[in-house]
Amino acid sequence: IGLMTAFFIYHTNRTLYSKKVGMLTITVLAMCYQWVYVIQECSEYALMLMCLSASIYFYVSCMNQFHYFNMIGFILFSILAIYSQYGAVFVSIPLLVLFFFKMVLDKDVSLKTRIVLFVTYVFSFITFAIPLYVFFLSKQMGNQEIANHVVSINGQSIMSFPFVLGKIFGYFFNVKNGEV
Fold first, then answer.
1. Whole-structure pTM value
2. Residue 146 and residue 77: Cα distance in Å, rounded?
3. How many other C-beta atoms can be found within 10 angstroms of the C-beta atom of residue 6?
4. What is the per-residue pLDDT across 139-149, written as a single tens digit (0 to 9) for each?
């Protein structure tokens, strides 16, 4: 996993800058203690970093010259990164949105490519977002103690966002019955 990550980081920097910058990046990366620790531990973070590196490589390649292979690689590795460690959503989703808007607003992109891109995004949403929420995130959010306190205050279900903000404000500033 570590070698594949280094491979994608090298090729991304080579595509953006030059071979020298790519080699310098890999050299600095190999000497970084935290990098070696994460790769040796072989946890989901190493897989996430590899998938994000591949996703960014395909994103940069697609921005330089559009090709369906690069688009599919970008979307596929973004999905795999999110499935391996859901913190990757903070990198993948903004890149996916930027990529979508660039392809839609670009005058050089054909209608066929725009339709394929839309179908790919719908397919990606169905295959990744819905199962991720249903099978993982909803259960995890239900098990958090903080979520239970926000949803139920004094045994009453809260349906109003302003009411929740009022309760939070009252808690922090100890406001009770108009007293400060």
1. 0.66
2. 32
3. 19
4. 665 555 444 44
